[in-house]
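Retro notes (design track)

What went well: tokenization of the new backbones is finally stable.
What didn't: we kept losing track of which sequence belonged to which structure.
Fix going forward: every design gets posted as structure first, then sequence, in one message. First example under the new rule, 175 residues:
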């Protein structure tokens, strides 16, 4: 099987088992998708939640697609990318995938008016942060060396840049 097909298959499986469980199955288990009154009795909280979900899902799918197509690998640590992915939203923030999953969870919490889901979202966000600090960044540093060091110095971990980062040769892969 060609590397590109293997990468797509691994990425699809990881999408189903990781974000599918974290942002789908677990929130369902907590809420059974039952609506409660909106937070602060403000109906716009539901709209904000819907927007977070609607924005988070395509960002998540785009991030996964980039790992398979451009990185020729997957987000799963057992099948990492062959290339460092620094295109698309990765030009603005280093972790759009984690931000997208958190947005979906927090969006569901606001949409459903569920405080337990807000707490779960905070725990997931903290777990993501610790995973990035303890495992992911050191692993990427070892795997990609100076390329990752340069990327890390120019693209923030969590708060997106206002303008896209461009690599030294003037191209980011999206031009």
């Amino acid at each position: 099987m060609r590397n590109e097909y293997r990468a797509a298959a691994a990425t699809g499986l990881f999408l189903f088992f990781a974000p599918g469980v974290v942002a789908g199955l677990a929130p369902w288990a907590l809420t059974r998708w039952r609506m409660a009154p909106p937070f602060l009795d403000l109906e716009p909280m539901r709209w904000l939640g819907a927007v977070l979900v609607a924005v988070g899902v395509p960002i998540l799918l785009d991030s996964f697609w980039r790992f398979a197509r451009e990185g020729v690998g997957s987000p799963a640590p057992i099948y990492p990318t062959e290339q460092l992915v620094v295109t698309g939203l990765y030009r603005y923030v280093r972790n759009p995938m984690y931000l997208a999953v958190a947005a979906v969870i927090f969006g569901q919490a606001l949409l459903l008016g569920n405080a337990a889901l807000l707490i779960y979202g905070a725990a997931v966000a903290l777990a993501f942060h610790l995973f990035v600090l303890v495992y992911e960044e050191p692993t990427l540093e070892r795997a990609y060396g100076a390329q990752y060091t340069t990327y890390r110095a120019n693209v923030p971990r969590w708060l997106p840049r206002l303008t896209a980062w461009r690599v030294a040769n003037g191209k980011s892969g999206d031009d």
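Added context from the reviewer: The helical segments are 3-17, 19-31, 44-69, 96-112, 115-144, 146-154.
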